[in-house]
Amino acid sequence: MTYTTLNAAAYLHHIELQSSNPARLAQFYGDAMQMQVRKVGDVFICQGPQRRLIVSQGEDKKLALGAFACRDADSLDALRTRAAREGLTPQHVVSHLMDTAFAVTDPDGNMIHFGLAKADPAGLTGIRGPTQHLTLATHDPEAIEAFYCGKLGFATSDRVRKPSGEVATIFTRSNHEHHTLACFRSDRVGVDHHSYEAGDWNAIRDWCDHLATQDIQLMWGPGRHGPGNNLFIFIVDPDGNWIEISAELEIIHDRPVKEWPHAERTLNLWGKAILRS
Ligand SMILES: [Fe+2]
């Protein structure tokens, strides 16, 4: 099944990660990703210009939730109605960073919020890099695609397929950006990585120079992905979560789904790849 029609209108607003040492993890994002860190109740809220991450006490590398912001109240209402019609029983939730939010749970048990973004605090500064996409690790990419596209109105952009025909990776979008949610076939379930979109090559350079001042080495890249055509670097946080900083991500107005071979060159046109499955 391929889902080509985009019916959602949302962007990745923030994610929440659990950590056995949330103070340390939050401080890492403060330093590495140029975010202000504040403790609110039991959680740490990290915010930079157009980027946000929450850290809560729990299991290392566990995704507590992914949160998408709808562009207006009408599109949020339409999405809630659609979710209810599809039998997802959307639950009202109180969110630190969004208003009138509801939660649904995907086939892997990942909690996903949709809501309206609260205003970011004034005075956030730093290199460009809005929160942009969440990539899941899953046993069943097609079930993830059926949930986000079939039930919530995301559209499929690209697929990576093994010679056997088995799907390895699926990229889906909830707006004009090539992917806002993707998934890799994996022997584990949860988050593969999350990404910030820096916009252009010079901003990637600026991020690399900034990371050097923090003594943080790149774990992968710079490179360019095939699907999405985006430039990328990857770093890893102290819990082992992978963070991507990307640029030049493809903008899609309307085009057929592209199929890619499961090969090193698909994941990195320029050099070595980290194949997940
Ligand atoms: Fe990515």
Molecular shape: globular
Mean pLDDT comes to 96
Report strand %: 35-45%
The residue ranges in which pLDDT falls below 50 over 5 or more consecutive positions are none
Q: Which topology of the largest domain does CATH recognise?
A: 2,3-Dihydroxybiphenyl 1,2-Dioxygenase, domain 1
CATH class of the largest domain: Alpha Beta
Measured distance between first and last alpha carbons: 21 Å
SS-derived structural category: alpha/beta
Please give the radius of gyration in angstroms: 18 Å
Can you name the CATH architecture of the largest domain? Answer: Roll
What is the oligomer described by this structure? single chain
- Count of strand segments: 17
Describe this structure in words.
The chain is an alpha/beta fold and 277 residues long. It folds into 2 domains: 108 residues, 2,3-Dihydroxybiphenyl 1,2-Dioxygenase, domain 1, CATH 3.10.180; 137 residues, 2,3-Dihydroxybiphenyl 1,2-Dioxygenase, domain 1, CATH 3.10.180.10. It is 19% helix and 40% strand. The chain has 5 helices and 17 strands. The strands form 2 sheets. It has a 9-stranded mixed sheet. The relative contact order is 0.17. Bound molecules: fe (ii) ion.
Sum this structure up briefly.
This protein has helices at 22-32, 73-85, 141-151, 201-213, 264-267; strands spanning 10-19, 36-40, 43-48, 51-57, 63-70, 91-93, 98-105, 111-117, 131-138, 155-161, 167-173, 181-185, 190-199, 220-224, 231-236, 242-247, 258-261.
Secondary structure blueprint with pairings:
Elements lengths: L9 E10 L2 H11 L3 E5 L2 E6 L2 E7 L5 E8 L2 H13 L5 E3 L4 E8 L5 E7 L13 E8 L2 H11 L3 E7 L5 E7 L7 E5 L4 E10 L1 H13 L6 E5 L6 E6 L5 E6 L10 E4 L2 H4 L10
